Amino acid sequence: MLNLQTESISLKQQNGQFGKNGAPQGTPKSRRRLYQSIVFNFLRAAALINGAALAIILWFMLARGWRAINWEFLTTAPYDSMTKGGILPCIVGTLCLGIGAMIVAFPIGVASAIYLNEYARPGKVLRVIRLGINNLAGVPSVVFGLFGLAFFVIYLEMGVSLLAGALTLAAMSLPVIIGASEEALKSVPDTYREASLGLGATKWQTIYRVVLPAALPGILTGGILGLSRAAGELAPVMFTAAVFFAPHLPSSPFSEVMTLPYHIYVLATAGTEIEATRPLQYGSALVLIALVLGMNLAAIIYRARLRNRLS
Fold first, then answer.
1. What angle do CA 261, 266, 269 make, to 5 degrees?
2. How far is CA 219 from CA 125, 137, 163, 303, in A?
3. Deepest of 116, 166, 199, 275, by most Cβ within 10 A of its Cβ?
4. How many C-beta atoms surround the C-beta of residue 217 within 10 A?
């Protein structure tokens, strides 16, 4: 009987149920569950912190800016040293800059991602290119603004204009779009390519008709991220496109524009009556948040419909 008990304890020690001294200990499965619970709780806490931060910012803006928002505020130009009136030129300028940047950056970014993922041969040159793209993604926006000022505004003689600002924002958005598009292309299974090539399609036909449609939802995610960054930037447009006051809407790509980020900056730091315009500052910030969220929401809805259609 004693021998059977000794053999039973020995087997349980081998299975991890008892330690060397015969004391019970947790099984590997229970330890894995504990680690999983700790990690999941950490992730939930991180998500709650991010959500709480967003809710606090929105509540702060709503509590101080909702009184300033009305039909006149959204449809008229500012007047009386920008202490009265609305922000229509700022809304139009921000939309034109964001859309113009995406018109330039999106096709170039997607084409670059296609080359890097589908055509470029692995090697030192490809690693250097990807390293440069990753470094550009971390460059501060003010550096892009100085680049736009030196190259587009002065060297190419575009002046402070809508076109110079859109091109600067496009250059700033390119690394984000390239990175997201390349990851989307990598997520497409190689069996799709092999099946298409096996049926006699050329490499370009395979990319255009098989790979791109499968990767398009992920590519649109990169476009959404690029649009969000372009619409809310201040430093690049401050040097290349935005002006203190422009009562008229832009009439050509070479027109100067007002933008919401620069308008908020001017009202908060360089206005003639900063305290009197405080509600206008919060109202403009609230409109900017709503504008960025609206553009993102439209793109996300289109991406979701496209994904459902492809599936």
1. 120
2. 24, 17, 25, 9
3. 166
4. 19
